[in-house]
Amino acid sequence: MKTTIATVIGKQRQRSQRSQRRLLFSVLCGLCGCLVLPVPAAAQEPPAISIRPFVFGSVQSFAATDTFNAVCGQSYDPFFGGGVQVVFDDRFVVELAASRFKQTGERAFISNGQSFRLGIPLTAKIVPFEITGGYRFKLSPRVRPYVAAGFGTYKYTETSQFNQAGEDVDVRHAGFVLNGGADFRLHTWISIGADVQYTHVPGIIGTAGVSQQAGEDDIGGVAARFKLIVGR
Question: How far apart are CA 54 and CA 66, in angstroms?
């Protein structure tokens, strides 16, 4: 009788364990099903106005190639910054962006097409503030190509510990901006963006020194930009 009762209890335990496993499996399948189900259309509808802050980094190839090669040893350098986008009706976008470039080089001069560095250190900084307006194309729910154009104001400073009074440079000038690229949505609230930006900023350099010798007056150029964007 004891053996029979033990056998019955053992079978009941086995049935209970099988039932628990089936229940767990059903719950897991249900959860997985919820994860792969498409988001309801109402949840996918973008807001009429979306505010999207972002940070970005870029690498710019300067139009003043000979000037930057002579002073900094290369004609391309990184910018880092951030800003905010305001998107209207998921199509039209206005973007405000600010960034900063800083590089240490040497005073130089150009003679017969060859540059010579003088061993006198200097620090150059560029601080752009840009505003653009553009249009976003509906290629797919996750990929949104765009084009934009606008203008900016660019502050350029050049300092050296060996400068005499009045020799430091501190000027600001307006310029033109044009860019195009695409946003790639990773999550409802997270996107990454990549674009190519062209800037034309004449008049800041070219009046003296190595830039005048090189015949260059534009501190703009072509940049590859990469953004991390938060918002719908």
Answer: 33
Q: Which of 94, 86, 93, 81 is CA-nearest to residue 55? A: 81
8-state DSSP, 202: B
Residuewise pLDDT in 10s, the chain (232 residues): 444 444 443 444 455 445 555 544 554 454 444 434 454 444 467 789 999 999 999 999 999 999 999 999 999 999 999 999 999 999 999 999 999 999 999 989 898 888 889 888 999 999 999 999 999 999 888 999 999 999 999 999 988 887 777 678 889 999 999 999 999 999 889 999 999 999 999 999 988 889 999 999 999 999 999 999 999 8
Nearest 10 degrees: Cα torsion 9, 13, 18, 21: 170
Tokens of 208: 């003296």
Burial of 99 (0-12, 13-18, 19+ CB in 10 A): buried
Rounded CA separation 153/177 (Å)? 10
pTM of the complete model beyond 0.85: no
Name residue 8's amino acid: V
For 41-230, CATH gives 2.40.160.20
Helix, strand or coil, per DSSP, at residue 42: helix
Percentages helix, strand, coil for the chain, rounded to the nearest 5?
A: 25, 55, 20
